[in-house]
Every structure is written in C-alpha cells, then in structure tokens.
Amino acid sequence: MKILYILPLAIMLSSCSSVKNQTSSGTGKLDTQLLKDVEVLSSDAYQGRKTGTKGAEMARAYIRERFQKLGLKSYPQNVNYAQEFTFNSRGGTKVNGTNLIGYIPGKTTNIIVVSAHYDHLGVVKDQVFNGADDNASGSAGLLKIAAYFAKNKPVNTIIFAAFDAEEMGLQGAKAFVANPPVAINTIAVNLNMDMISHSDKGELYVSGTFKYPELKKFVDTNRKEIKVILGHDDPKLGHDDWTNQSDQGAFNAKNIPFLYFGVEDHKDYHKATDEYSTITRQFFSDAANVVLDVVKSIDKQSQLQETLKDKMLMRDNPQKVNKF
Ligand SMILES: [Zn+2]
Question: Cα-flanking dihedrals φ and ψ of residue 285, to 5°?
C-alpha cells in the first residue's frame, strides 16, 4: 500500500534467517510457485525494489522472464512489456518508472486489468525493506493468475499489469490510465492485489463493492479456509476507506469499477521485518486462490461492459455513458 508514514526504526531489527514452521489451517495445500515468487522478489538481492534502483530492475527482469515463459503477449508500444514513464517525486526531483504490461487475448472487446505493484521502499538507514507482503505477494498472485489463464483461455482480454512507483503515490497506475495500450473505455474492471500474504486472523478484505455493488455477486464470502470480508470502501470511514490507498485509486478516478484485495496493516507493515519469514504462508496460498476465483467468475461474463460499467455509469452519470 501507499506509504503514509515510516515507523521508528528501533523496533525493526529481528532475526530473518529462517522460516518458521507455521501451523497450517485452511486447505492445507501450499502453492510452491507462488511462495517461490515471493521468496525471490523479497530476497535481499533485490534491495527492497525501490523505483529507479538496480533492485527494481532485477524485479522487472524476474517478472519479465515469468511473463515470457507463460507466453503473455506484449502490446506494440510496450516493447518487452515495458511502459516507461516519468513523474516528479514528492521532493520535486524527476523520477523514471517502468510498468510491465502483458496480456492474454480473449474473445470479446472487453478488458479486465489484473494488477499489483512490484516496487517497495528500498534500503532505509542501512536496512533492506524487503516488502514480502507489500507487495511481492501481490506480484506473485498476479503471476499465478496469469499462469492459470495462459492454460485456460479467458473469455475477455486480461491485461496483467505489474506497476512501478506505487509507494511514491500510485504513479505507475496513474501513468497506465493516462496512457493505456487499449481504449480506456474498453477497460471494464480493475482487480488489484496489494498485501495478500500476511494475516494472523486469516482475513482477506475485498474493497470496492460499496461504490460498485454490482461486483458483489462475483465474490464468494463463504469460504471455509479464510475469512473473505467486503469493506474498507465507504468514504465515511476516512483513512479506513482504502479506495485511494493502492493502485485501484487511479482506475476509480477514471470511473473504472474495481475490486481491491488486501489485508489490514500488521506488525511488519512498512518495516524491515516485512520479509518472507514473516508472511503467513497457508493464508497466502488460500488468499491467492480466492482472488483467482473472483477473476474466473468475472471473466465468465461475455457482456462485461453491459453488466458492469455501463450500468454503473448510467446510475452515476446518465449523460456520460460511452458506447463503443
Ligand atoms: Zn503496497
């Protein structure tokens, strides 16, 4: 999620050499590829994947290779999946960012954008902020979903967007919606993952149905293995409304319906201890399956725009409906 503040560093030191044995609940099945992707991306070699650093470049190389092996296509303007962009940092300096955009073509003109940011905070005062949960976990979830649809062709075209510079203010997602590789009015929905691997309570939140109630029917909230809870999306909640706290905010700003998947802030949030050894592995495997099932369920709709976006636009802005 977006950085809001950095907690004092004194409590950040902890042992990080071994992965604890965690009691399994849930399905009992661990997704080894999913875990491997997080373990690699959040290893010290990647130096916290801060935008503009060698570590971020290494993360892109890893994700790009996985995209290629899965056979994801690249739009002509995104050579080797890359969408480059620049923005001004909060300090006023010019920063270069790079999104990776791959896709699997479907049979309709509708687009689903599945997204996750791969950047994190880098090295802060000599400590590597590995960002295992934030957001190597969402990046791994993105790869898992891409792998599923590479084998099981989707009804709608699915874009897989690994965004850069989320931690600097959703910059990659903003660059994407400002300059998308497809007509923006063909994007029916954004499904964004940011922090899906760390919940001691076994709770995954799904935000977005407050504004877009038509999306509720695609979310199974009766899972046995973990709790799937709709919420954190009512503007009255103030800071607990997560609509603008990760990349889905850029889509929402363009009136594109979204679902955001994530956990509540935890003891390791935006600390050096957010690393592979502290994620809850069984929860993560189960949470990634929940997200995959939502994507599958939404993708079954061959009339996505008609069932989602036009209906919502009609309700909110009857004069602004874009037919194509
Ligand atoms: Zn994040």
Answer: -60, -45
